Amino acid sequence: MNPSLKLLLLLIVALEISFTTIVSLNVALVILAGIYLLAKRVKLRTLLWLLIVPLIPAIGLWSTQYINGTGQKELMAWVLFTRIYAFVFTGATLTLTTDVLELTDSLEQNCHLPAKFAYGVLAAYNLAPKIKHEVQVIRAAGLMRGQTLSFWSPQLYFKAILISITWSQNLAQAMASHGFVEDAPRTHYRKVRVRPVDWGLLIGGIILLQLGVFVMPWH
Amino acid sequence: MATIALEHLSYTYQTAQTPIFEHVTAKFPAHQFTLLTGPSGTGKSTLLQLMAGLLPLPADHGHICYDQTQLQNISAPDRSKRVAMMFQNPNQQFAMDTVEHELIFALENQRTDPHIIHHRLTSALDFIGIRELQHRLLNQLSGGEKQKVALAVIVAMDSDVILLDEPFASVDPDARVSLLRRLVELRDQRGKTIILADHDYAGYDQIVDHVLQITPTHQVVELSRSDWPAFFAAFQPQTLPAWFLPVPVDQPLFALHQVGLRQGQHELVRPTDLQLHAHRNTLITGANGTGKSTLFEALVRLNPYSGTINYDGHDIQKLRRKRYARHVALLFQDAEAQFFNITVAEELAQSQKYAYGDYFTPTRIQSALTQLNLAGRDEQVIYTLSEGQKKKLQILLMLIMQSPVLLMDEPLKGLDLSSIHALVKLLQTVQAATQQTLIIISHQLTGLTPLIDYHLRLADHQLQYVGEVRHES
Residue limits of the ABC transporter domain (chain B) (predicted)? Predict the structure, then answer.
């Protein structure tokens, strides 16, 4: 499916389940997303992690609601529990099966997002492993001067911001030197198209969602 | 195709008072290779950035002309066909993840017809001889490979003028030779104009057509051919005094057992056994990009390595980070990495507060500041110090800490000779009293040699001591 339309569909799904209290809908979404992920050959191990990791916040929400909630306590507890999983699984259908570059291409070509924004985000994403190392360097440099910088220490962030300012300037220069000019037209080597089937999937998905919300809800 | 002329160019940084260039008039002839020289901090990078249009030149500050056209009149999308730049830091010149994607990105920016992009990118990779890197992740390439990719991008973009800002700072000698050969081919076969800034001039006299110098009076002047021999002779490799080889001991400070270092898929140091000795000063030399800084990062656990490193008999991976950092500290190459406060006084106070030893009393700190010509700057914001002042302050801060071992990565970089002498004298005085162990990576050896006891050399992926065997008398 076209990455931009996929993102749009997922945003609509997320928005709609945030305002509904239908357990069956959440469960159906998790199952559908699970089937999609399996069809896309996502590793079983990864799926298992998707089940385990949200368990902590899910149980947290469930128990809070069950113990302290008002009104239909038990229903709301299960709604919140399944909603977390619905968010995680539908989100995973984008993050685990769509390449960031593909999404960037699509946002630039189909949604006409400014190229500056699209490539800026992409460049930042590609710098992520370096940022991780840089944070280690800052913390080590701190220890060598007798200062323990924890993850909530303002000095860690002050240093990180100083470094990112330098990096962003260098990166902007590098992009300019590789011919990138803000708002100038570019050609596209990798063409991303919106095919009729993409529109069909988007509209079909939205209709299916409304069926789940209004026609056969099981609370 | 493109002769570049600077006409009455003046430039001053916003934060600085003194100008970098004052009414400079100079010419870079087309189809020729020009070496741009000058000590670090004289404005080589700034000049190249101005010439590439990456730094805007204010009005009434002169002109930069490509043939007869002023740079600011060349429309931004056409600039990359006129001029491209290769940067010093190979890690910060790519926006994409793989080699292929970066080349496509650059070609798309030039509005190249998508049908010929594939051909352009493969022929550029073939020209540089790095077709096998096409699908590799940029993050996993060595410094030399990254610079080759950067040059391939420039070849693909087919820019008339190629500017290179100290491009070999993290490139190993083999890759440097191969890059220089490609640049000569670009000049001879494709008529490119090449302007390269470097502070290490070794090997250029056979290649370049012109040498331009940035002078202390903020001018750019051409060095006449007759002055070349004297100029290049001054940069022949220095002969080092022959130090003695260390005698192996049972309890060395560091014991490296089959330690190997890699950068992505590139082997830097072959697995090796080595001892480093306490209360002695060891100098580590080796060409750019051979892995000296990576070795230091491994010693302070910032970089993975194979084999085991023992400090004082203990595997460093099993020591607590906090405790180990108090024993073995690293003076980073980038001085700013070591600053955590705003003013000089705050930094000094922090080091005193956490110091490991009590050698540095307030009086001694004050005299060290005077010695390093840093006195009276207590309330100055550290980020407004000059690069040389930052370096000196950084070294003093780390000395005050009095960690038993201090690894120093290029401690003399960017310092003038009088600062170097003052610094070495301070190091000698401190060391006589505290028995601190120093391990030093340095290209700059003038003035440093009196401090050194042993010499480790990293070459051909081998790390070994060089020197004479000490005979028992």
Answer: 4-241, 254-473
Percentage of chain B beyond pLDDT 70 is 97
Within 13 Å of residue A34, how many CA atoms lie on the same side as its CB? 15
Cβ of B350 within 8 Å of Cβ of A145? The answer is yes
8 Å CB contact of B332 and A175 = no
- A217: its two tokens: 């809800």
Nearest to A144 among B49, B96, B403 (CB): B403
Average pLDDT over residues A183-187: 88
Mean pLDDT estimate for chain B: 90
Q: Please list, in sequence order, all residues whose beta carbon lies within 8 angstroms of the beta carbon of residue B294, skipping any fewer than 6 positions away.
A: B261, B263, B268, B269, B303
Please name the member of A145, A173, A174 whose beta carbon is closest to the beta carbon of B401: A145
Cβ of A129 and B139 within 8 Å? yes
Higher pLDDT among residues B445 and A94, named by residue: A94
Chain A residues touching B52 at Cβ < 8 A: 177
**Topology given in CATH for the domain delimited by B254-466:** Rossmann fold (3.40.50)
Between residues A211 and B438, the one the model is more confident about: B438
Domain ranges of chain B: 4-234, 254-466
Chain A residues with CB-CB distance to B300 below 8 A: 140, 144
Region B36-46: mean pLDDT is 81
The per-residue pLDDT for B15 is: 65
Q: Under CATH, to which class is B4-234 assigned? A: alpha beta
Q: Evaluate if residue B16 carries a pLDDT over 80.
A: no
Chain A residue at shortest CA distance from B338: A141
In B, minimum Cα distance to A121 occurs at B95
Chain B residues in contact with A140 (beta carbon < 8 A): 300-302, 321, 325, 330
Amino acid letter at A39? A
Residue among B44, B135, B48, B148 nearest B90 (CA): B148
Q: Which two tokens stand for residue A16?
A: 């709609």
Residues from chain B that touch A169, judged by Cβ atoms under 8 A, are none
Is residue A183 pLDDT above 90, yes or no? Answer: no
B301-304 long-range contacts (CB < 8 A, ≥24 apart) are: B301/A140, B302/A133, B302/A136, B302/A137, B302/A140, B302/B330, B303/B261
| Whether pLDDT at B236 is above 70 | no
Fold match, B4-234 / B254-466 = yes
Angle at the Cα of B401 from the Cα atoms of B396 and B406, rounded to 5 degrees: 80
Cα separation of B48 and A64, whole Å? 62
Smallest Cα distance from B304 to chain A, Å:
11
